[in-house]
Amino acid sequence: QVQLVESGGGLVEAGGSLTLSCAFSGVDFNNYNMGWFRQAPGLEREFVAGIQWHSQRYSGNFANDRFTIDRDDAKNTVYLQMNSLSPEDTAVYYCNTIPNGVWGQGTQVTVSE
Q: 50: which of 37, 69, 83, 112 is 20 to 30 A away, CA to CA?
């Protein structure tokens, strides 16, 4: 069974950067397409960025060049580098397989003015 543990969230000022990590275990990570998602208070969960098993990347509409997803198959870990953060990026960030499986706890990102 797939297990996902997100980390790296925190409080950052607007314009700052954070790198989130997602540790993956339970099955062969190399075979899975992975993604980052986020959910802000009162809103539905939305797609942030994805990376296929062969490392092709794609992003949600708002991420453009600010967010970069990457994976390290040797460490069974997927990352999300976030730059130029704004208060609108405040949310709980989750990683998951694509298609989605069981959701983890997520990691809180809070961006102050």
A: 112
Q: Report cis status (omega within 30 of 0) of the bond before 99.
A: yes
Nearest Cα neighbor of 4 from 89, 105, 84, 75 is 105
> Strands 10-13 and 107-112, how do they pair?
parallel
Token duo for residue 98: 């694509």
Burial 56-74 (b: 16+ CB within 10 A, else e): eeebbeebeeebbbebeee
Burial of 103 (0-12, 13-18, 19+ CB in 10 A): middle
CB-based contact 11:112 (threshold 8 Å): yes
pLDDT tens for each residue of 31-67: 889 999 999 999 999 999 999 988 888 887 766 789 9
Contact 95, 6 (CB under 8 A): yes
What's the start-to-end Cα distance of the chain, in Å?
Answer: 40
